[in-house]
């Protein structure tokens, strides 16, 4: 009997290994390593991604390869970007001697530092702490891809897909939905991972708008950032703040020089979005990556505590002239947005508001 038990144990271990088991590998929660272990969820993600036999698939954070193996069954090629050398070794071992060996390319480095190659579809179960910068890095990628199917922390995913008037609607939603169509696909409970994270997850499909909207994205984000600093206040109240007006007047005075070389106010989208993703002013505050920051907290940098232009550095710029204040309020009044609140404004509203300000020579950079 003991021999039969031993043989049975060996058989179970072999089966687990063949199925992409994780024996001998310790996962680090601090690095965001939560391996998706439920085969039904894995299959559902592959199905919803709509992978074609001619597709090159970019997978970010393949881990032990449970999702990778399913993608290899469907795709022409899979490019897996993995930072952990142990996972790279495990992934290499799994495809060695299989028909998929020549279909898999592994890039061993930090995805945020990688120059990503061409791909048709991105599928990713990512470390949640890079959710925001990675999303915008992908949206800045050229040539544009067909879709990205990404596993996010559930609350972050809800922010991505939120609509005007909903509680989760925020600057992240506005910026993302300007550049892409975003759909929530499925919620994934924490027990579907090993080790289980502290929060539930959700899978989101992102389809970039191609071509992207012909606007200066840095200026767009400047306006949206300001409006969402206090998203439940009226725009009239926000734009009456002294520090905000002082900053805008400075931009107004420099507008001709700043925009003369920008071909009608447009800038390169790739450069703009990359700058937003990687700089201190990246789209959405770091707190948003784990869902812990409120929109009001995200706006403190811009509002400077009491509302206005973001602390002592901006306060030193002085006060705006009364004439400029009247000019700002006239634009808001004429465009019909003076009593509007960012929390309930749509993409079209923000586009119309930006156009109204720009027509009056007022820019957000």
UniProtKB/TrEMBL annotation:
Q: Where is the Ribosomal RNA adenine methylase transferase N-terminal domain?
A: 41-210
Q: Is Transcription included in the keywords of this UniProt record?
A: no
Identify the SUPFAM superfamilies for this entry: S-adenosyl-L-methionine-dependent methyltransferases (SSF53335)
InterPro entries from the UniProt entry? KsgA/Erm (IPR001737), rRNA_Ade_Mease_Trfase_CS (IPR020596), rRNA_Ade_methylase_Trfase_N (IPR020598), rRNA_adenine_dimethylase (IPR011530), SAM-dependent_MTases_sf (IPR029063)
Q: What ranges does the record list as Acidic residues composition bias?
A: 286-303
- Alphabetical UniProt keywords: Methyltransferase, RNA-binding, rRNA processing, S-adenosyl-L-methionine, Transferase
> Superkingdom, according to UniProt?
Eukaryota
Record has Glycoprotein as a keyword: no
Question: Mind listing the GO molecular function terms for this protein?
Answer: RNA binding; rRNA (adenine-N6,N6-)-dimethyltransferase activity
Instruction: Name the Pfam families on file.
Output: RrnaAD
The segments labelled Disordered in the record are: 281-321
The residues listed in the UniProt record as binding S-adenosyl-L-methionine, with positions renumbered to this chain, are 34, 36, 61, 82, 110, 125
EC numbers, comma separated: 2.1.1.-
Q: Which family is this protein grouped under?
A: Belongs to the class I-like SAM-binding methyltransferase superfamily. rRNA adenine N(6)-methyltransferase family.
Which NCBIfam families would you find in this protein's record? Answer: ksgA
Tell me the protein's name: rRNA adenine N(6)-methyltransferase
Q: Which organism is it from?
A: Micractinium conductrix
């Amino acid at each position: 009997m003991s021999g039969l038990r031993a043989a049975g144990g060996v058989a179970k271990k072999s089966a687990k290994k063949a199925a992409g088991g994780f024996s001998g590998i310790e996962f680090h929660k601090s690095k965001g390593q939560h391996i998706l272990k439920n085969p039904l969820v894995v299959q559902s993600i592959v199905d919803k991604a709509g992978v074609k036999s001619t597709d090159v698939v970019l997978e970010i954070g393949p881990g032990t390869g449970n999702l990778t193996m399913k993608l290899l069954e469907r795709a022409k090629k899979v490019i897996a970007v993995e930072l952990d050398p142990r996972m790279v070794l495990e992934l290499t071992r799994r495809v060695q001697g299989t028909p998929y060996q020549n279909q898999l390319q592994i890039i061993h480095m930090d995805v945020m530092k990688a120059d990503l190659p061409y791909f048709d579809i991105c599928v990713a179960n990512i470390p949640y702490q890079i959710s925001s910068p990675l999303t915008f890095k992908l949206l800045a990628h050229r040539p544009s891809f067909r879709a990205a199917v990404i596993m996010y922390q559930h609350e972050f995913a809800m922010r991505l897909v939120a609509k005007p008037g909903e509680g989760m609607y925020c600057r992240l939603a506005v910026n993302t939905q300007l550049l892409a169509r975003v759909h929530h696909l499925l919620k994934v409970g924490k027990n579907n991972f090993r080790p289980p994270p502290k929060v539930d997850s959700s899978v989101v499909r992102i389809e970039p708008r191609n071509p992207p909207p012909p606007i200066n994205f840095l200026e767009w984000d400047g306006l949206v950032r300001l409006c969402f600093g206090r998203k439940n206040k009226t725009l009239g109240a926000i734009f009456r703040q002294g520090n905000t007006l002082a900053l805008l007047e400075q931009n107004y005075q420099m507008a001709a020089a700043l925009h003369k070389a920008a071909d009608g106010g447009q800038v390169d989208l790739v450069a703009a979005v990359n700058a937003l993703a990687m700089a201190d002013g990246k789209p959405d505050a770091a707190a948003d990556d784990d869902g812990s920051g409120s929109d009001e907290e995200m706006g403190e940098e811009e509002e400077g505590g009491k509302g206005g232009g973001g602390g002592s550095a901006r306060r030193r710029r002085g006060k705006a002239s009364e004439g400029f204040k009247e000019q700002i309020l006239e634009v808001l009044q004429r465009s019909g947005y003076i009593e509007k609140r960012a929390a309930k404004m749509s993409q079209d509203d923000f586009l119309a508001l930006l156009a109204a300000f720009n027509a009056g020579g007022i820019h957000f950079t």
